[in-house]
Structure formats: C-alpha cells, structure tokens
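[job 4471] stage=fold_predict status=RUNNING
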Amino acid sequence: MFAGGEGSEDMQRLRDVLEHHLLARLHDDDIHLRKAAAWLFANLNTARIVPKLASRLTDPDARVRSTAEVGLIETLLRSRWGLDAVVAFLEYIRLVER
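[job 4471] inference complete, writing structure tokens
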C-alpha cells in the first residue's frame, strides 16, 4: 500500500510512471492500446499531461498525432479537473506562440 494520501511522494512516483508508459503507447502499433491510452490521459494531472499531448499534435507519425488529439479531447472533456484542463491547454498555446 502507498504511504500517505493522494499527494504523497509514492503516489507522485506512480503517476510519473503511468504518464511515461501511457505516452509511450502513442507510438504503439496496436490501435487498441493507443485508444486505451488516449482514454486514460483524462485521469492524469491535467497541468502536466495537456502540454505533453499538445506538443505531439505535430509529430511526424500520423498515429501519434491522431492518438494525441483523441487523448487531448478526452482530457479536456472528461478530466476530473474540469475547467483547469482547458486552462492548461490555453496556457500551453500561449507559451508556444512566444
């Protein structure tokens, strides 16, 4: 069991590992794994995952672009952080435009 609550160091390490593995699935040959990853992104920290997905919207691999797009949409629509997901995306766009 993890020590501490949702904000504990153990939970943060777990989130980091999950984020790493889900982002790697964007490149997977198996469309079912890519779809599952896209759906799961909405459960991660919005402020961290939105910029990472948005940066992959211009990836040379069409599969990565497509899955990142679906993941971004799922995150913006279903994130438990609600409006914060949209704010994170807008902040990313502002930073990219500079």
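[job 4471] summary: The first helix runs from residue 9 to 24.
[job 4471] exit 0
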